[in-house]
Amino acid sequence: MITQIKKTFFTGLFVLIPILVTIYIIYIVVSFADTAISPIMKNITSNITGKELYIPGAGLILFIIITYLTGVVASNFIGKRLLLFGEKMLKKIPFVKGIYSSVKDMMDAFSSDKMKSFKEVVLVEFPFKGRYAIGFITNRMQNSEKGIFCSVFIPTTPNPTSGYLIMIPEGEVIFLDMPIDDAIKYVVSLGTLRVEFEWKEKKSSTF
Prior knowledge:
By secondary structure, the protein is of the alpha+beta class. It contains six helices and five strands; from the N terminus they run αααααβββββα.
């Protein structure tokens, strides 16, 4: 009886934790946006109506607009140059550079451009024979004597933004019929996520 109650409790706990964490993160973003931007909104409404008005959610809407405009600026040549200059300045500030670099690396790792560099999901013997790790092929190289080598990125868990890059003969790689998104989720979940995959028939590489 006690065992069943504990099992049921932990089942509910594991269901609620991701939901509560998601809600908490959304709450932090909304609160931060309102706290940081509401003074601006009050000044605007004060100039227009003569009274300071608090509009719930207005800070979030303004934050979304600013984020979009930042994306527009970052998409053109001049904007990119300005952002690079700003990044160089931030990376010269002690403590700040560590936080900024860590967050930036994490965001970059999951950007669409970086995800496109992950071509296939594979299993490789790592860190030694008889032990296997999930990896992503990022490139292939042809050697006239040794044949084809695969560049395989092996992510760490639960933070897949760091990991190891190894070169391994293509013949020693086990190709998996698994979507890249599922493989990343599996790594992040510490292997607790249930995923299904099959060995994929290897196709001959062309250069």
